[in-house]
Structure formats: C-alpha cells, structure tokens
Amino acid sequence: MKDMSGYKLINVYVFNPAFKEVKARCEFTYCNNSDNCEMYKNGKCVNQRYMLCSILCPHAKRNIEEGFTKRASKFYSWQDDKKKQYAEFLDKITIENSKLSLCGDYVFLPYPHYKNYVNPLDFIVNEHFCKLEDFTVDNIKTLLTFRPRALMGGEITDYQKIHAPKFIQHLKEEMPEKYRELKEIFPELMKIYKDIETNYVGRKAYIKTLKIGAEIFNKGKFIWNGEKLISENFNSAFIPFDIKIGRLELIPEDNSTVEITDNAQVDKNTKFID
Q1: Sign of the dihedral through C-alpha 134, 111, 146, 167
Q2: DSSP per position, 33-56
Q3: Are the CB atoms for 266 and 272 separated by under 8 Å?
Q4: Distance CA 261, CA 71 (A)
Q5: In angstroms, rounded to a whole number, what is the distance separating the alpha carbons of residues 182 and 242?
Q6: What is the pLDDT tens value at each position of the chain, 274 positions in all?
Q7: Which helix H or strand E contains 115, and what residues bound it?
Q8: According to DSSP H, which parts of the chain are helical?
Q9: DSSP state of 125
C-alpha cells in the first residue's frame, strides 16, 4: 500500500474483466490538491489509466486492489463488496482529458511528443503537465513552435499540423488572459493562427451551449431552440404506424455532444469537449 498521507480519496472504479484469466480490480485515485482544482470542483478529472500507458496528474496517486478471476466463486461478491464499501466515491468523477485544463498548480496539456527521446521539453512534467509558474508566455511560444524529432530521424510533423493549432484554440477558450498576453507580445507569431482560431469544424461541443437556432443534420434537420432539438422532418424506419417522416423533439442531457459541421453553430457561449 502506498503512503497516502496528505492525499484524499476522490474516486473509485471497480473493473469487471471480460476475460476469464484476468482478475477483477478496484482502482483508487487520490489527490493532494482537490480543494484547489477547478476540474475536480466541476466533477471532472484528467487522470486515466490505459492498458499500455496512462495520464497521471502530479497531484494524484493511484492504488489498485486485485480481486479474483471469473473462475473463482468470489468473483462477483468481491466486486459487490467493494462497490458497497466505497459507494460514496464510486465513479464520482468524469474523465475529461482531451483539452487544455487547469489542474491545481499545473496546466494539463493533452498533446503528444513533449517528452520524446530526441528533443524533450524540460519544463513538461509527467508527459502532459506544466507547472503553472512555468506556463509563461515564452514557454507557450516554445510549445507553439515546437518541432519534435523522431528517434530514427526527422520531424514528427503531425504536431505542427494538428496539435499546435488545437493548442492555440484551447488556450483562447480556457485561459483567455494568457492568450491575450501572448497575442500582444508575439503578434507576428499569432498571425499564423488567425484563421485557425475561428474554425471549429470537426470539434465536439456540448449541445446545450450551441448557438440558438443552430442547425444539426441527423436523419433530418434539427434546430436548437435553447431547450430542445426540434426536427419537423425526422426520417426513420422506427417511427410507428408505418410513418416515415414525423416531428421529433429531443431534450439533450448536460453532457450531450455533437460534432460541429458549420461555424454558424457556434457562438461565444459554446463549450467544447475537445
């Protein structure tokens, strides 16, 4: 068991494996700065564990308890016991780690290649984090102009093509004051991103934050009126009474998203998930 003094439990996830040879497990996430984290205050967190890699905030620690395989009689009862024991923390936070975020004393940067083997950036921590005190305009410029090198030689070109433009969009949305400072100090650099800043096509946005009157197409045209998505010509084989086209009203959840297909769907109130 790791030393968790100074840390508090913020989330518990019980993993039910699909394969008979894999053990069930209970994954615990702890944090030493949750009271100062805007992500956590909104019920979100960037920490995520994958099969081959993971994202771990410098404020966080993980612990794992293993249970039994499906061959054991206690396989299901062990999971049920853990869910009851940690009901208060079970799936308490929503994982959201596809855009720049402020996590306590660190800025989370979900872009690849910062810690490559050839020309890594020394102010990046845990692959994707920068101390807030190090997130200076000069270092932001370094991030924007960064050209990561491949181990076998040559530039990893997808960073400048895909990730640097996404970074500048995220910075503008999540840290507007820092964005304005960057624009004032490096106006020539920012001219490169003039068109990118206002192009949102391909990004995912929360439906409830779309521009009033935004049109969305999915088996018919839907119009967002601020409360509902309304289609006057919804076309589906599943409408009863052999009716092919009908009126449909949908009330989206807070976390309902849609891919932006036209910049006219977006206004200053639109929030993006990526």
Answers
A1: negative
A2: -GGG-HHHHTTEE--EE-SS-EE-
A3: no
A4: 48
A5: 59
A6: 567 789 999 999 999 999 999 999 999 999 999 999 989 998 999 988 765 567 889 999 999 999 999 999 999 999 999 999 999 999 999 988 899 999 999 999 999 999 999 999 999 999 999 999 999 999 999 999 999 999 998 999 999 999 999 999 999 999 999 999 999 999 988 888 876 767 899 999 999 999 999 999 887 899 999 999 999 888 887 778 888 888 889 999 998 999 999 999 999 999 999 8
A7: none
A8: 38-41, 75-85, 137-145, 158, 164-174, 176-185, 187-191
A9: E
E strand intervals along the chain: 8-15, 25-31, 44-45, 48-49, 54-55, 60-66, 94-95, 101-103, 106-108, 124-125, 129-131, 204-206, 215-217, 221-224, 229-235, 245-250, 257-259
For residue 227, count other CB atoms closer than 10 A to its CB.
11
The predicted model scores a pTM of: 0.83
The DSSP 8-state label assigned to residue 144 in this structure reads H
Closest CA to 172 of 270, 95, 259: 270
Neighbour tally for 177: CB within 10 Å: 7
Tokens at 195, concatenated: 């068109």
HSE (side-chain half, CA atoms, 13 Å) at 86: 20
